[in-house]
Amino acid sequence: MVLAPYAVRPETSRGRLHPEAGGDARSPFQRDRDRIVHATAFRRLQYKTQVFVYHEGDHFRTRLTHSIEVAQIARSIARLLMLDEDLAEALALAHDLGHPPFGHAGEDALNSSMKPYGGFDHNAQSLKAVTLLETRYAGFDGLNLTWETLEGLAKHNGPLRRPAPYIAEYDARHPLGLDTHASAEAQVAALADDIAYNNHDLDDGLRARLFTLEEVGALPLIGDALAEARAATPDMPADRVAPETIRRVINMMVGDVVAETRRRIAALAPATVDDIRRSSGPVVAFSPRMAEANLALRDFLFTRMYRHWRVNRTMAKSKRVVQVLFSLLHGGPQMLPPAWRSRAGDAGSARCALVVCDYIAGMTDRYALEEHRRMTDPDVPG
To answer: Facing residues of 16 across strands?
Structure first.
């Protein structure tokens, strides 16, 4: 495929922190993607919450299925914009590797527990997972991904003026240019994330009967897609109306991102990827009209789904699980598995807090629940 002048090019990659020989027909970004897919942290996403905890139903999204959906959308947008699809896909697959169990409830609980030690940020934890915590290779910690993939993970949401502690620490030994925008491929992955989670949360909310299609159809974007779906197939079975509507919403969002990005690129006239990085704002974006419609959908989901009493009840329980685990392990690191215990240092120390945080962040929902049961139920042997 012919790439645009402003696309990242595999042959001009800035390489890896630890130099490696090529050795096969894959591009550097294809190798990155494959390493991410084979990572332990990636497999664990299967049992990490998106909104609904894994045992609430087999058909709700998990972090794994969400990441796959993001990757599919990212590749589609990258192809239309003549960008490197493999880099966009690698970033999409890796963007949630740092999420702890129980979704945002788990993140909030870890952030609260880690306040005295710099807090917790899932983007920083994703970078930490691929640069330190994965231990699959003999010659280095982490996955030794290319500079371009690490750059995209660190700053896909824009320049970092006040980076999280681990990102700042890593940048000090392997500078990622935190004061500039990331590549267009990284920006595509970030927008694909927005498109995927708004639409699949809408689908999951309808499946869970937290609201009706008619209620969400009052929103302009959804209403347009719903009317189009019904007009295209008037005798469509009722259970197919929502999937047909959501499919059209995704197509509308993707088409809007491509059109708005092309408009911004035409105005900027970038000759290289560095022109993208040095631009005054992101080049991959929704149009103002679509951004407003997307915000209305997000506000609806926040009110009717993320703050629904059933979701709140589960999230409150989940927070307590994480908080109890952190408190017990920070005060008693002798309860950590040997590989973690050897790195934890003294009980109650900052070093111990960081190790316990990494341990908990890597847990799946079901493993966290089981660890909590083992440590708090006197009748369960350790």
So the answer is: 146
- Of 221, 130, 161, 148, the residue nearest 187 (C-alpha): 148
Whether the pLDDT of residue 57 is over 50: the answer is no
- The confidence score (pLDDT) of residue 54 equals 46
* Burial annotation 170-182 (CB, 10 A radius, 16+ → b, else e): bbeeeebbbebbb
Task: Identify the bridge partners of residue 49 per DSSP, sorted by sequence position.
Answer: 62
Token code pair at residue 300: 């609806």
pLDDT in tens, 350-382: 999 999 999 999 999 999 999 999 999 776 665
d(CA 63, CA 93): 10
- Using CA atoms, how far residue 223 sits from 212, 234, 248, 354, 374, in Å, is 12, 16, 11, 47, 49
Report which residue type is found at 176: L
Find out whether 226 and 217 touch, Cβ atoms under 8 Å. yes
Distance CA 43, CA 300 (A): 31
Q: Look at phi and psi of residue 370 and say left if phi exceeds 0, alpha if psi is from -120 to 50, else beta.
A: alpha
pLDDT attached to residue 292: 97
pLDDT higher than threshold 70 for residue 243: yes
Confidence of residue 140 (pLDDT cuts 50, 70, 90): very high
Measured between alpha carbons, how far is residue 373 from residues 231, 312, 370, 379 in Å?
52, 21, 5, 10
Q: Which whole number is the average pLDDT over 162-173?
A: 96
Distance in angstroms (rounded) separating the CA atoms of residues 78 and 261 = 11
Q: Choose between 210 and 120: higher pLDDT.
A: 120
